[in-house]
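pinging the channel bc i need a second pair of eyes. not urgent but kinda urgent?? the chain im working w is below, pasted from the shared doc
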Amino acid sequence: MNKICVWGLGYIGFPTSLLLASKGFNVVGIDTNASVVKSANSPDPHIPEAGLSLLLDKAHQEKKFKAQTDPEEGNVHIICVPTPFENINNKKKCDLSFVISAFKSVAKVYRPGDLIALESTVPIGTMERLEKLFFENRPDINDLNMVYCPERILPGNLLRELQFNDRVIGGKSENALEKARNFYSSFVSGEIYLTNFRTAELCKLTENSFRDVNIAFANELSMICENTDIDVYELISLVNKHPRVNVLQPGIGVGGHCIAVDPWFIVEFDELNTKMIRLARERNQGKMLHCVNRIIECIEDFEYKFQIKPKIGFLGLAYKADIDDLREAPAVAIVNEIMKMHNDLMVCEPNLKSHCDFMLRDIDFVLSNADLIFGLVAHKEFIEAANNLRFADKRFIDFCGITNRL
């Protein structure tokens, strides 16, 4: 298992490639995006994550990693391509086109004894579908070593979690499962648990749906408190003194490619029995619209009181604190909605150098020039400003607990 092919060089595939290279494997990163391949072969990683630059430099020096667009043979094939959802007849369904395309390419170069590991998040039953697809494309192969091993990592802490998080591996044959256990044990320090395809598929979806439901509860609670003039952060702090209660912090919704997407894959599989999962997803989407309406109310109140249009500042665009990831970010959607009505906006996102739609400003500029400031993401820079009382004399509306961290 010395030669590893990683298909997809995004937030999962690229760090995985470099980690494997650091463990002594010869790694080929394969991506259909030529610019991503070019960047992966350069000294500067295309994903800003702590520790990646050092691993990339080490991998290049030791000639343990190369990126390319063409398929290649390998002892292990790890598929880490995107699985976005799409709206079809007002129903959200998983787009498996990237997975199927990658899988067909892997099938062309697969040799008996190789291992295929899919890490992309997929709906229940996908592995069975891929197995059937494989044998249709490779009737010459009688025995297929294929497993499902969903990733469980968090942007901002990718390399550590890749190594230390427990992993669940689903497979059909004992041989494939043992091959996968031996391979992942070579770079994963966490426990490895073996199961079947469908259980592993639903395991990943359940993890993120569980979190979505709990965030929805916190977001709903924040709206109740808003209507009753109760500080939701003080309330949650007191409630969490109970030894068996752990209410999460509310925010402006849910973003990212996992929690904001994966629950729909369960709903797609079983519409009848997913009422709570669907409601949680709708509640978290509704919190974003609630924030938009609150911002509009604040703007209208300012205009009525001062008879001028306010200069508006927003703090944060990323889908969570202290990262640069904008995938499914509710803050981006909120700012876009307000932009439809107001042009004089100032946006501060300290984790980005630029943005194609917004002129980014530093926090000093926003504090000095904005009449109304809305906190959307609790980045550490904003919390530090709050601790130094820099918002004290500002019209600051906090949607994410910048001024009151639990």
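so The longest strand covers residues 3-7. and The CA atoms of residues 123 and 265 lie 5 Å apart. — does that match what u expected or am i reading it wrong
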